[in-house]
């Protein structure tokens, strides 16, 4: 919206507002403007400015749903006052990720007697507090909670269990082996499970996947329509999820239409899971499917599963060939207009007719991709990363040219080697260093054009005629773009020591550099951008173009650009940041990165920045510059730096930031630690899951989950 909140509140004169008094706007327009204001500000501040706003701020359209999940300025007192003022008017309350609020804050939710949906993921909730709260929420139908060590289902009262028996949607994040509240939810239709159980305790003891005493109650799945499980790395998570699946294998719900299990690494199929899949093939028709790679590889499962109107498929890291994809999933190229999200990340043979004798680096079969594009013409989210998708020399069949037909795409992930022009079709654009022609025995005067004429214009024409430039021009409504090297791996993996060596980039990716990055600047509506392992970045000039043109950019992640021995794009990055007024999340991963005064001065122009993460092997930082940056950027609530500084220097800086800014920023989370230190994994486990999952750990996020999986 065009007017600032200050203008609304102050009621500036008509002359100052160009003859328009904001208070003369219709209620409908003002309500739309106020919908962008955080609920706490509306009720506790804006409402007290004038009578008209006092009435509008309590309109049902603004109080029906209260979102606190990214209101980093909210504290216990504000939540208490908010619940006192409008608690009875709230039907949906989202407090996900409010890790900074004390557990006693949850007590005030009991004032929301009419709650239908409640999200407390990431909040500190004990068994007793949960019992007391749920006992008063008789209308609750949707619930999201964490199950932490010490959770005891026997402490749940009968009134609490009565409320849980009416809940139809449950999202449960497990940090300890437990069924949580699942056995109490006898009317479940949607169950989302996130397994974040570590294999070792803080004391170093190995943990078991066996459930605690008193946790043997059987879950009730008879009404289940959606089952989703996401596992963090570790064998304990696999053991526990098998206990949840055991009940499903006995009797598959007739109404099941979405079955999704996201498991990293190897998750072997067992007799019970095979029985479950066989039962699903006989009894249900699915709309969404995701399975561990070991359950699909080498099996004929996909040939027997039946689909209704599928909207989401994920075959991430499977050895599924393109021939099987077309025959068994897309039914030989039949109409699949219902499919809106497709994840083929790490599916190295998905665009080849067969995988038996094929090398991962061989050219793709463009006819398979064409069948995919024609059949799934309404795709909005497509992930083809973590694979070598090399186009052949045949004209008109380049991967970028075929993808340009998907006009509805909102998010796209591609490997770097897939966007390069085939050498036989388009020559590599000249670099700045060879724009001045070289001649023998003749001096060339600077500024005088010599033969050939208009060489710079020819270079621009070649750049703009590239297949990737054309693709970016055709996807004008794209909001999320990821260009990731097929062999890229982050220096900071989950639950493991930092990686010291990285694999070299694909040979075809060697030509991808500044001109391709500049092509991204055509995406006017771009909100999230990830660039990783682009080896030919020289100056980073394309970043400046993105900063100037992509004014809605909110999330930026850059990793291993250009040469690894130096950061050649630093100057361009600083110029880019000066234009990123809407940037909220910035993640940088680059060896030898120097986070000095000039960098933080440029970063201070990003007035909306909330989260910063820097991962740099042998990287350095200036403590004074960091402190000055934190003082200037008042919205920053997360500062994670994993670099090459000493443990003492890191601890001193971390303590200084916390001591100086924690009081005014209740959600402040600071982690500054040596990247290669042996205790890194212990430090990582204390990072709030919201930050860890959304920014600190590198991963491809396009089509990671079905759209609108949770509200």
Strands, helices and their partners?
Layout: H1 5-10, H2 27-34, H3 39-44, H4 51-56, H5 60-63, E1 65-67, H6 76-86, E2 92-94, E3 117-119, H7 127-134, E4 142-147, H8 158-166, E5 169-174, E6 190-195, E7 226-231, H9 235-250, E8 258-262, H10 271-283, E9 285-290, H11 293-296, H12 301-304, E10 306-314, H13 322-329, E11 341-343, H14 366-375, E12 381-383, H15 399-403, E13 411-415, H16 455-464, H17 467-474, E14 480-484, H18 514-519, E15 528-534, H19 541-549, E16 555-561, H20 570-577, E17 585-589, E18 594-595, H21 597-603, E19 611-615, E20 620-621, H22 623-632, E21 638-643, H23 647-661, E22 669-674, H24 680-684, H25 689-696
Parallel strand pairs: 1-2, 2-3, 3-4, 4-5, 5-6, 6-7, 7-8, 8-9, 9-10, 10-11, 11-12, 12-13, 13-14, 14-15, 15-16, 16-17, 17-19, 18-20, 19-21, 21-22
Helix pairs in contact: 7-8, 9-10, 19-20, 20-21, 21-22, 22-23
Domain F-box: 19-66
InterPro entries: F-box-like_dom_sf, F-box_dom, FBXL18_F-box, FBXL18_LRR, LRR_dom_sf
Pfam family, one: F-box-like
């Amino acid at each position: 919206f065009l007017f600032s909140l200050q203008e609304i509140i102050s009621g500036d004169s008509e002359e100052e507002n160009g003859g328009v008094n904001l208070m003369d706007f219709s209620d409908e327009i003002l309500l739309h403007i106020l919908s962008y204001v955080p609920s706490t500000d509306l009720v506790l501040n804006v409402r007290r400015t004038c009578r008209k706003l006092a009435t509008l701020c309590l309109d049902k359209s603004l109080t029906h749903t209260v979102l606190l999940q990214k209101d980093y300025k909210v504290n216990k007192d504000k939540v208490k006052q908010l619940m006192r003022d409008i608690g009875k008017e709230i039907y949906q309350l989202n407090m996900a990720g409010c890790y900074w609020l004390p557990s006693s804050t949850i007590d005030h939710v009991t004032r929301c007697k009419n709650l239908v949906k409640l999200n407390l993921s990431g909040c500190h909730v004990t068994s007793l507090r949960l019992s007391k709260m749920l006992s008063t929420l008789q209308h609750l139908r949707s619930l999201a909670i964490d199950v932490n060590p010490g959770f005891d289902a026997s402490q749940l009262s009968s009134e609490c269990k009565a409320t849980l028996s009416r809940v139809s949607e449950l999202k449960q994040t497990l940090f300890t082996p437990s069924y949580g509240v699942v056995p109490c939810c006898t009317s479940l239709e949607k169950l989302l499970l996130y397994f974040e159980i570590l294999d070792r305790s803080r004391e170093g003891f190995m943990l078991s996947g066996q459930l605690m005493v008193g946790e043997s109650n059987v879950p009730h799945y008879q009404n289940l329509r959606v089952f989703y499980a996401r596992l963090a790395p570790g064998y304990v998570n696999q053991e526990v999820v098998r206990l949840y699946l055991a009940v499903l294998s006995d009797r598959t719900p007739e109404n099941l239409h979405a079955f999704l299990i996201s498991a990293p690494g190897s998750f072997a199929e067992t007799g019970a899971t095979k029985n479950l899949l066989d039962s699903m093939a006989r009894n249900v028709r699915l709309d969404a499917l995701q399975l561990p790679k070991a359950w699909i590889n080498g099996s004929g499962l996909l040939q027997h599963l039946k689909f209704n109107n599928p909207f989401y498929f994920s075959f991430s890291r499977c050895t599924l060939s393109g021939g099987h994809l077309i025959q068994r999933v897309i039914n030989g190229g039949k109409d699949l207009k219902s499919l809106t999200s497709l994840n083929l990340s790490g599916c190295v043979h998905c665009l080849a007719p067969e995988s038996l004798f094929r090398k991962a680096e061989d050219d793709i079969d463009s006819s398979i991709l064409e069948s995919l594009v024609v059949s799934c013409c309404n795709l909005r989210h497509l992930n083809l990363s973590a694979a070598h998708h090399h186009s052949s020399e045949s004209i008109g069949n380049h991967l970028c040219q075929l993808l340009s037909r998907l006009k509805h795409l909102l998010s796209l992930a591609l490997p770097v080697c897939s966007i390069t022009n085939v050498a036989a079709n388009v020559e590599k654009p000249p670099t700045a260093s060879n724009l001045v022609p070289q001649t023998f025995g003749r001096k060339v005067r600077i500024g005088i054009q010599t033969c050939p004429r208009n060489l710079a214009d020819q270079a621009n024409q070649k750049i703009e005629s590239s297949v990737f430039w054309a693709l970016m021009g055709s996807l004008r409504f794209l909001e999320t773009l990821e260009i990731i090297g097929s062999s890229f791996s982050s220096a900071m993996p989950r639950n493991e020591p930092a990686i010291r060596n990285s694999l070299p980039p694909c040979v075809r990716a060697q030509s991808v550099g500044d001109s391709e990055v500049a092509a991204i600047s055509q995406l006017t509506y771009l909100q999230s951008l990830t660039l990783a392992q682009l080896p030919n970045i020289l100056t980073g000039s394309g970043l400046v173009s993105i900063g100037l043109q992509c004014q809605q950019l909110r999330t930026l992640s850059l990793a291993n650009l250009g040469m690894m021995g130096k950061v050649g794009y630093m100057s361009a990055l600083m110029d880019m940041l000066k234009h990123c007024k809407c940037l909220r999340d910035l993640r940088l991963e680059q060896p030898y990165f120097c986070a000095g005064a000039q960098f933080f001065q440029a970063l201070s122009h990003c007035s909306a920045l909330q989260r910063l993460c820097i991962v740099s092997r042998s990287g350095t930082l200036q403590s004074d510059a960091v402190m000055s940056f934190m003082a200037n950027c008042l919205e920053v609530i997360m500062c994670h730096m994993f670099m090459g500084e000493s443990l003492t220097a890191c601890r001193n800086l971390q303590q200084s930031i916390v001591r100086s800014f924690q009081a005014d920023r209740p959600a402040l989370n600071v982690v500054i630690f040596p990247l290669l230190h042996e205790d890194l994994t212990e430090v990582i486990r204390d990072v709030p899951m919201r930050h860890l999952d959304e920014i600190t750990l590198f991963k491809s996020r396009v089509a990671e989950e079905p759209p609108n999986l949770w509200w």
